[in-house]
Every structure is written in structure tokens, then in C-alpha cells.
Amino acid sequence: MMPRRVFPLLVLCLAPATTLVAQDPVEQGVRIGITYTPGLRPGMMVLGGPQSAALDSVRAILRRDLEYSDRFEMITLPTGDSVVLGISAVSGLGSGPTAEQTLFVNYSLHAALGADHTVAVLPSAEAGTVAVVAYDVRGETERLRSRLVLTDPADERFRMAVHRVADEVVRAATGQLGIAATRLLLVSQGRLYRVDADGAGLTQVSPPGVTTFSPAWDPTGRRAVYAELRGGWGTLYVHDFDVGRRTVVRPTAEELDIAAAFAPDGQTLVFSRVAESGTDIYRYNLARDCCLERLTVGRLSDNLSPTFSPDGRQIAFVSTRAGGQQIYVMSVDGTGQELFAPFDYGVTGNSNAPEWSADGTQLAFHRDVAGSPQVFLMDTRSRTVRQLTSYGRNEDPTWAPDGRHLAFVSSRTGRRQVWIIDIETGRVRQLTTVGDARLPAWSPRIQQ
Amino acid sequence: MKTKFAVILGMAAMVVAAACGGGQPEPVVPAIDSTAIRDSIARAEARRRAYEDSVARARAETERLARERAEAERLAAAMTAEVRTMLGTMVNFDYDKSAIRMGPDTDVLQRKLSLLQANPEVMLEIVGHCDERGSDEYNMALGMRRATASKKWLTDRGIADGRITVRSMGEEQPMNPASNEDAWAQNRRDEFRVTAGGDRLVKPAGM
Predict the structure, then answer these.
(1) CATH number at residue B164
(2) Which of B6, B103, B106, B184 has the highest Cβ tally under 10 A?
């Protein structure tokens, strides 16, 4: 989708009319946009303004976060004009320590440019900080003022702080918190990596020489669980990002245990134990380090890939009890096991990798269609299923905490990479460029 | 004067001669029988040769035995290697299946069965593998079922359950990293490894 461009209007305002390129009929005094369509997403403009490396890096991160929220039509100003507009927008700025609070915003000009919301990044009265201000253009009010401590722009904590402000801007504009302050885990060539939701800050999590599998986050976003594969064994480890250390999940040391998931309370783990007698789902109380409990009895069928409902009462999982792989659901104590995602036997392909959305209304999974996995969504109340992807192989979907973005593995460019789709708009972007990325897990909002 | 000097010299010589051992009896020279001497020398020589021959024969025998032992060792090692290879021969599977296919795969397992019977000390580990197409997590379960299928084929025919352990690597260790039918067919497999009792392996008669 093309962002609305306002170049012609700026030309009208700032330059002789001879350079006007008339692509749309121009009406006097109204908003001009080449692809303007009423009723679409609100327009969002990130102003230029006083320039410094730090201010510009905050603007760049904010702009990208707002763009990736997929909730706005980003108003793209040609670079030079953006600066001009920014300067004109802050031309009413006074001087002295309270300068930022007297910012003059020409709301009608912003509205004419198509902006419903405008964000400015301004030097702050307080040394070493900047102010991020979000304006409601239609309401002609300031909606949010947030102060950011400037540290090294390359520092991951600085970027995370900007991401948190971006999420607040999204909330100020839409009422819904954004997802910029989140991260993803993924496996590439056996190594476990962590990456910010905007694709920056790729960091290896697993120790050198370790082959990892099936990562998952805890509800705080400060710990993760993954399996380490070694000589046919699979041992679960919990990695604590705050202290940068991992601990073994005791009863999984000499087994083939994979595909773990944290309960929403962060106390309990469920995982799949792959054994000679079949693959079954177990539950373990991590907080008390006790009470291993088997939830499924496969009798040579496979039960795996558990995912908790956000209320912690149910577990969706994959089972082969009826032949192929299909999505089932059970109570957290293992009772009431039943088919979840409906299928017509022999028609519907194998279904795998279920993940419950944070609001509990949807289940994402992948299902084989004509030999290729595709991402599907199921409404958990009506149990109706719809197909989300169709091009290439698309598998292992994982929800962002906003319940509208999904990361998944796609081979659409030839090699497996992690992509992100916004299910509201259908917009898709590639997250990773590392070799053979797979098994993504999207964090909840990272707690401070 | 000249004569008198000579007499004194002669007496002195006699004194010296007497002091140096004069007075010993003449040695008795035995009668020489040359034939007897030659025979005795020949016998001694024969005995020496017989002794040397026996030493050489013993050495040759020892060397022959050592050679034979080395050869037997070499043959045993070769047989052990051959049996190990036969025990290590992979079994392949159809896509998303863990059933043992009749034909070459059952032949492979039949050979393993005979070898396990002939080598009762052998312990075996079977690791199941998958191609990249199925779901990554499901493939761990599928690999385990493939390993279990080979194990069951053998234990159903009398091999003790405790002699075979099973593992799965899912799709994590492809034989062939390519993404095409040939590679996938190679990657859907059970690998077999002797984990104990494999120092000296024998083939059963008629194999």
C-alpha cells in the first residue's frame, strides 16, 4: 500500500507552481493526496525539526515502529520538505528552559497534509533527555508527552525505551497499545537468537556449540525456555535474560523433551516428551521444581506442541490419535480432550504448531494445503477456520501481543525466513535475513 | 783368556736355563688316530647343526604362527568392520510414514537380525530422521516412531528389548541438505550404531 504523499501540496506552499506535476485534479484549499482514500487508517506524521544524531535516531526508530504497527497511513514527506515543515511547525518555539512546552502546532496545515496524528521529537529542557509529543490533529490537542533519557543509540536499552514510547504513541492515537517493545526468538542453524520486533538488535542467546530447538517466552518476556538437542536427547533449559544465564529443567535431563510452553502465570511448564511409547504432553511445576505430571496417554500416537489459553485453563495441542496431525484441546489437568479445529478426514491436511492469541479469541496454526503448509486462523468461540497465507510454504505462526500481528516462517523468497503479517490489513514484511531462520516465538510486551 | 770367558758364559747360560724350568719331564705324546678325531668333529658339527636347525624351525614356526594370528586378526577385524557396516546400513521410509517397507529394507533388517543373533553382546542404538517438509516439532515424534518401527521389527523376531535403544533427531541432521525429492528420500531414514559389544563381530555361517 502506498503511503499518502503530500509533495504537490508542499510544492504549492513552498515553491513556484512551475514544478507542479498534476497527477490528481487539484482543488483549491482541500487535502491533496495521490492515493487518498477516505475511511482508511488515520494519517500519522513524524515531524522533522531540530536536528542531532540522537534526535534523528529517535525519530527514525519511532517512525519505523509506527509504520510497523500497521495502524496508520504514514505521511511521507520528501526529506528536504520534511525539515522545512518541521521548522515551520516549531517556528513558534520560544527560547529558554520551558521552550518545548510552548510549541506552536499548525493543526490545520497538518490536517491538510492528511495527518490525524503528529509526533514531534524535541530537545527537552532537561539536559540529556528529549521529549516525544503526540498531537491529535483533529482534536487540536496534545495527547501524550513522554520524556526519554538519551543514552548510546546503539544500546539495546535505549532502543527498547524508544519502542515503549512508540507503543504509548500508538495507544494515544488508537486506544490500543503498540507492539514495538517486544522481541522474537528464532532458531537459525541450530543457534537460538533474539531480535527486536523491528528487526534490529539480533543477538545470539544460546551458548556456542549448542543445538537448540522450539523456544518459547515466559509471560514477562524476561525468561525463555528452549530445548537443547544432543545425541538424540532433548533437554529443556530456562534462560533468564536479566542475568544472562540458563538453568536446566531437572526432569528433562535424560529424555527427548521439546516444544515447551509457559503457563500464563509463569509457574508451570508444559512440554512434549518424545518416547518409544509415543509422544505425550507433560506438565511440570517450575516454581516449586516438582510434580511432573503426564497429561496425555498417546498409546503410540503423538501428542505435542502444547499452547495455553490466556486464562490458563485450557491447552491446545497437536494429536495424531485419528491418523494425521490435527489440533485438539483439553483442560489444563488433561481432562476433556477433544478435537478443536474441525477437519474432514481425508480432505483436510495435517495441522500443526497451534498458538493461542493473547486475547484468547483466535488460534493460529499451520495446515498442509496441496503439499505446502499455510497459516490458518480459527475463531476459538465459533471454531470457524480461515486460511491466511497462500504463497510458498508458510508455517509456525506466533502471535504478537496485540492479537493482530503474526510472525511465521516463509519460504516465499526461496529460503526460510521469519516474516510478519498484519491480519487486519494483510501487510507483510520480512523480519530476518539470517540463514534458514525458523521456529519463531513472539514475546509478550517486555516488562521493565 | 778367550776360552776361560766362554766357559763362564756357558755356565751362566746353564744356570739361567735351570732357573727357568729346567727339570720338568718330557710330555707324553699319544698315538695319533686321525679317523676317530674326524668322526668326533663331525658328530659335534652335526649336533650343532641340528641345534641350529631346531632353533630356525622354532623361529619359523613362531613367525608362521604370528603371521597366521595376524592374518586371523586381520580377517576378524575385516569381518568386524564388515558386520559393523551391515549393522549400520540405514533403513529408509516413505514421506510422513514410519512403516517398514517390504523389500530392500526388510532385507537390511533381516541381515541385522541374523547378525544380532550371532553377536549376542551387541547393543544397538537406532536414531530416526525426517526430511524437512513436515512440521519441525512433529518430525521429532515421527523420527522416534521410525526408530521404534525398526526396533519393533527386530524385537518381534526375538531380539531382547534391552539391547536396542531408540532416539530421534527429527529433521535436524539431514544426510543431504538439498531440497528435492532425492535429498528428502535420503533424509527419511533410521541410522544404526553399535554402542557396546562391537569389538569382535562375527558373521553367521552361510552369510
Answers:
(1) 3.30.1330.60
(2) B184
Indicate the residue of A279, A352, A395 with minimum beta-carbon distance to B144: A279
Distance from CA of A14 to the nearest CA of B (A): 57
A366 close to B (CB below 8 A): yes
**b/e sequence B19-34, b meaning 16+ C-beta within 10 Å:** eeeeeeeeeeeeeeee
Residues 97-156 of A with CB under 8 A from B: none
Closest CA to A237 of A209, A193, A207: A207
Contact A214 B127 (CB under 8 A): no
User: Is B39 a domain residue?
Assistant: no
Chain B residue with the nearest C-alpha to that of A299? B145
Cα distances from A364 to residues A117, A131, A347, A368, A391, in angstroms, run 32, 39, 20, 14, 17
Query: Among A211, A259, A278, whose Cβ lies nearest the Cβ of B137?
Result: A259
Strand partners for A324: none
Q: Which pLDDT score is estimated for B8?
A: 62
Amino acid at A392: G
Q: Considering only CB atoms, which chain B residues are within 8 Å of A304? A: 137-138, 140-141
Q: What is the mean pLDDT of residues A421-426?
A: 93
Of B135, B148, B151, Cβ closest to residue A352? B135
Ordered DSSP codes for A136-184: ETTTTEEEEEEEEE---TTSHHHHHHHHHHHHHHHHHHHSS--SSS-EE
Residues of chain B contacting A211 with CB distance shorter than 8 Å:
172
At A108 the pLDDT is 86
pLDDT of A208 > 80? The answer is yes
**Could you tell me the CATH superfamily of domain A7-174?**
TolB, N-terminal domain (3.40.50.10070)
How many interface pairs between A and B have CB atoms less than 8 angstroms apart? 78
Asked whether residue B31 is domain-assigned, the answer is no
Q: What is the ipTM of this complex?
A: 0.83
On chain B, the residues whose CB falls within 8 A of the CB of A232 are 125, 127, 167-169
B134 domain-assigned? yes
Give the total number of structural domains in chain B. Answer: 1
What is the rounded distance in angstroms from the CA atom of residue A102 to the CA atom of residue A90?
9
Q: What is the arithmetic mean of pLDDT over A122-127?
A: 79
Smallest Cβ–Cβ distance between B140 and the set A190, A231, A256 belongs to: A256
Give the CATH fold of the A183-442 domain.
Neuraminidase (2.120.10)
DSSP A34-66: TT--TTSSPEEEE---S--HHHHHHHHHHHHHH
B20 is a domain residue: no
Q: List the domain boundaries for chain A.
A: 7-174, 183-442
Whether residues B169 and A232 touch (CB distance < 8 A) is answered with: yes
Q: Give yes or no for B145 touching A (CB within 8 A).
A: yes
Segment A53-68 mean pLDDT: 91
The verdict on B193 touching A (C-beta cutoff 8 Å) is no
Q: Which three cell numbers stand for residue A425?
A: 490489513
Window from A39-48, A97-106, A408-417 with minimum mean pLDDT = A97-106
Residues of chain A found within 8 Å of residue B142, distances taken between Cβ atoms: 302
Pairwise CA distance, residues A45 & B27, whole Å: 142
Q: Which structural domain range is residue B190 located in?
A: 79-196
Is pLDDT of A93 > 60?
no
Among the ranges given (A423-432, B24-33, B74-83), the one the predictor scored with the smallest mean pLDDT: B24-33
Q: What is the pLDDT of residues A130-158, one digit of tens each?
A: 889 999 999 999 999 999 988 887 788 89
